[in-house]
Write a structure and sequence with these properties.
7-stranded mixed beta sheet, single chain, alpha/beta, 5-stranded mixed beta sheet, 2 domains, Rossmann fold, Trna Endonuclease, Chain: A, domain 1
Length: 315
C-alpha cells in the first residue's frame, strides 16, 4: 500500500499455488525509513509446522537479499494459544515506530504474539481518516492497540473512547495515541487540543451497560470482536453473542450515527453475520443503510474472505 511502512508481502493461503507448505505461511514487513524487520507466521497442520531448517535458511537468505535487518517467527498451533514470537535471525528492536498513510503506530517483535497492527484493516483506517468526523464522539470496542482510535482522531473526532479487555494492549493503545497526538490533550503551547482520548481497561459486556446507564451516546461505534474471548465473568463467542453485542451498541448510538462492525473469522459467513446484526437492529427499532462493505485489501490478502463487515448509517 502506498505511503505505508507496514506491508503483508506474502499471504500463503492464497498465493501458494497448491504448495501445502507455503499455504501455511504469511510474511509481514515493517519499515521506518532506515531499516526493516519482518514478522513470519506459520500454522500447524497434522502435528507439524511448515518451516523446517532448510526452509528457514532459504527464508533468511531471501530477507537478507532485500536488506531486512531481522525477523521473528510465530508458530500458531492447531489448538490453544501460540507462544510468543521467537527470533528467526538478526537483531530486532524492542519496538519500531512506523507510519501508515500519515498515522504513526508502534510495532513490537518479542514478548508478544502479534506485532500490534492488523494490516487487513488498513482500508478501514484510511476510510476513518477521510470520513470527516469533525466534532464527533467515538466508541471503539475490542480495540486491541487502538489503531482504529488513532484513525478516528486523525479523521477529526473530538473525543475517542477506547475499550479493551487487556491491560497490556490498553497501554499499547495509549502509546499509539501519544505518537499521534500530544499527551493529555495538550499542545506544545499548553492550549487544550482536540481530539481527546479516553482509555478504558475492561470487559465490553460490563462497560457497555454502564455507559448506557450513564445515558452516554456516541456518533460512531466500532465493533471488531474476536471469534472467542474469555473474561472473569463471561465467555464471548460469535456463534451466540453477536445479536446481544449489537443491541448494546445500538442503545449507545446517536440517531444518524455510524456503526462499524466487523469480524475476522472463517467460522461464520457474511450472510450469517449480517442476519445477526439485522436481528439486533429490528429488536432495537433501528434502520440500517450500508455506507460501505469491509474486506481485506486484495493486493495484500488475495483471495482472503475471513474478514467481513460493514459501515452502516443507523437511524
Amino acid at each position: 500500500m502506498a505511503g505505508s511502512g507496514a506491508l503483508r508481502i506474502f499471504h500463503g493461503p492464497s498465493e501458494s499455488e497448491g504448495d501445502s507448505e507455503l499455504s501455511r505461511i504469511a510474511v509481514e514487513l515493517f519499515m521506518d525509513g532506515s531499516q526493516s524487520f519482518a514478522w513470519v507466521y506459520t500454522w500447524e497442520q497434522r502435528g507439524r509446522f511448515s518451516l523446517g531448517p532448510d526452509f528457514k535458511d532459504e527464508l533468511i537468505h531471501f530477507f537478507k537479499s532485500i536488506s531486512v535487518s531481522g525477523a521473528v517467527l510465530l508458530e500458531r498451533p492447531e489448538s490453544g494459544a501460540p507462544r510468543d514470537a521467537e527470533l528467526l535471525f538478526g537483531n530486532v528492536p524492542e519496538f519500531l515506530d512506523i507510519r501508515e498513510n500519515g498515522a504513526n503506530f508502534r510495532i513490537r517483535f518479542l514478548g508478544t504474539k502479534h506485532p500490534g497492527l492488523f494490516l487487513d484493516h488498513a482500508p478501514l483506517r484510511t476510510w476513518l481518516m477521510n470520513a470527516k468526523l469533525s466534532g464527533k464522539t467515538v466508541l471503539n470496542t475490542f480495540a486491541y492497540t487502538g489503531s482504529l482510535s488513532v484513525a478516528c482522531g486523525l479523521g477529526g473526532a473530538s473525543k475517542v473512547t477506547t475499550l479493551d479487555l487487556s491491560k497490556p494492549t490498553t497501554q499499547w493503545g495509549k502509546e499509539n495515541w501519544e505518537l499521534n497526538f500530544p499527551p493529555l490533550g495538550e499542545s506544545a503551547s499548553g492550549e487544550t487540543s482536540e481530539p481527546t482520548g479516553d482509555f478504558i481497561y475492561g470487559d465490553v459486556f460490563e462497560w457497555l451497560p454502564k455507559l448506557i446507564k450513564r445515558s452516554e451516546k456516541f456518533d460512531v461505534v466500532l465493533l471488531d470482536p474476536p471469534s472467542f474471548s474469555r473474561s472473569p465473568k463471561k465467555i464471548f463467542s460469535t456463534a451466540k453473542d453477536l445479536p446481544g453485542l449489537h443491541a448494546l451498541a445500538f442503545k449507545l448510538l446517536q440517531p444518524g450515527g455510524i456503526l462499524i462492525s466487523s469480524i475476522n473469522s472463517a467460522q461464520i459467513s457474511a450472510s450469517q453475520f449480517r442476519s445477526q446484526i439485522d436481528l439486533a437492529a429490528k429488536e432495537e427499532k433501528r434502520t440500517l443503510k450500508v455506507i460501505a462493505p469491509l474486506a481485506a485489501p486484495p493486493l495484500s490478502f488475495p483471495g482472503a474472505d475471513y474478514l467481513k463487515g460493514w459501515i452502516f448509517r443507523v437511524d
